[in-house]
Structure formats: structure tokens, C-alpha cells
Amino acid sequence: MNNLKISSLLLVGDSKEREYFENYFNKIELVCSNREALSSYHKNSFSAIFLNCGLNELEYSAFNISKKIRENDTRTVIVILADSLDNDRLKKVLPLHLSGCIERPFNRSQVEDVLSNVEKDLEFLSTDITKLKDGYHFCTNQQIFYDSLHCEIKLTKNELKLLNILLRVKDNIITEESIASEIWEEEMWNHNSDEINYTSRLKNLLYNLRKKLPKDSISNSYKLGYKLIYS
Fold first, then answer.
1. Does a structural domain hold residue 66?
2. pLDDT of res. 198
3. Pair 107, 21 in one domain
4. How far apart are CA 143 and CA 71, in angstroms?
5. What is the chain's Cα-based Rg?
6. In DSSP terms, which residues pair with 102 in a beta bridge?
7. When you count CB atoms within 10 A of the terminal residue's CB, does the N or C end of the chain come out lower?
8. DSSP label at 137?
């Protein structure tokens, strides 16, 4: 962790805290309030934003600022700095996909645990991510499917194939025959395909994948085929 150097940080804090985090970031912009942080965020690009949970700013609380950022931006890493952490606060910010919370006074072990999360999140966000409904997302490079809380959802081999096919055609409809021929191509070559009901197998596969996706994520156009609904 001593060699960790993250690109840039927007920090709501004081000069001592800036000096502390200079060990971990190449560039730090220091502001005094969450309101200033939001203004600077709109003007510049940062790898990470550390907001202050201890400030008495109702409209510009760390929670509200995080919520504003997350309305259009899921790629900037956010961390909360707080004088004390309680379960109610943590539950409130959980849906906002933060990289962590750091309690004052800073404890090196806790800080480095959170910064390790920051590094992992930045690495993840730099990969090819496809956003689906309700905050679900799929990492194309790693072939991993995540729910809105960034928890991995396990897919079977054929469920993964089906999801990739639907993602590849984007907003277009793909026929049952095309899907089946891709998923069971090798099997069709090696066996008499007339003896196997691929339509029934595909419907069963679609049923199982739908249970793992957000509701109404796969649209069925009668006699035409299927397509993925992104929002």
C-alpha cells in the first residue's frame, strides 16, 4: 500500500488531512465544504471524492451530494469521512455504491483498507461495463454479472452465453433460431437437431435467466424473437 498512488482526489477537509492523503494520491484539490466539492466536481474530473459527513450542511450533506453525483455518474469513486460511524448512516448510504467510510481520527489500517477498495473500484470501473436496469451491470471483460449493490450474480455457462448474445444485438430483436444455433451450435453439428426440441430448451433457459435479471429485462416479440431492455 505504501506504493499506491491514485491519480486525483477531491477532498473536503483541512490542510492536515490533505497532507495525510498526499502519501496516496498524485494530485489533491482541497475544499472546505461539500457544497464547494459539488461545484468543483462539475468543473473538473477526479478519480475519487472524499466528502465530509461531519459538516452541518442539510442540503449539502455528504449523503445528498453523493446522491446528486450518482444520478448521472456511477464511475467516480466516493468515500465518506466522518467523526463517528453508526449503522443508520451506513444503511442510508449503502445504495449509493460508495467505496467506504473512514472514521476520524484516521487509523492507518482502516484508511488503507478503504483505499484498497478505492483502487479495486477504479480498476473495475476502467473495464468495459454495460449498465442494465435498476443498477444491475455486466463486466464484458471479466464476464461477471452484478446486482445494484455490486454483488456478483452467478450465471450458468448457457445463461452467460444468452446474456452475451442479447447484449451484442443491443436494441435489436434476435430470433429463437439464431439464439439456439449459437448456444447449442456444437451439439447441433454432432447430433440430429430434429430430434431435440431446442425451442423448449431455450424457453427454459430464458425463464432461468429472467429470474436473475431485473424485472421485465427481456422482451418477447411474438413470432419475431427477443431483445434486452436496458431501462
1. yes
2. 83
3. yes
4. 26
5. 23
6. 81
7. C
8. E
Cis peptide before 105 (omega within 30 of 0): yes
Count up the domains in the chain and report the number: 2
Q: Which of 126, 147, 166 is the last residue of a domain?
A: 126
Handedness of CA 107, 108, 109, 110 (dihedral sign): positive
DSSP 157-218: HHHHHHHHHHHHTTTS-B-HHHHHHHHTHHHHHHS-GGGS-HHHHHHHHHHHHHHHSPTT-E
Q: Which of 8-22, 49-63, 98-112 has the highest mean pLDDT?
A: 8-22
The reply to whether 49 falls in a domain is: yes
In this structure, what CATH number is given to the domain that contains residue 30? 3.40.50.2300
User: 204 lies in a domain?
Assistant: yes
The pTM score is 0.58
pLDDT in tens, 170-193: 889 999 999 998 999 877 776 655
- Any domain includes 145: no
pLDDT in tens, 37-85: 999 999 998 989 999 987 666 788 888 999 888 887 777 899 999 888 7
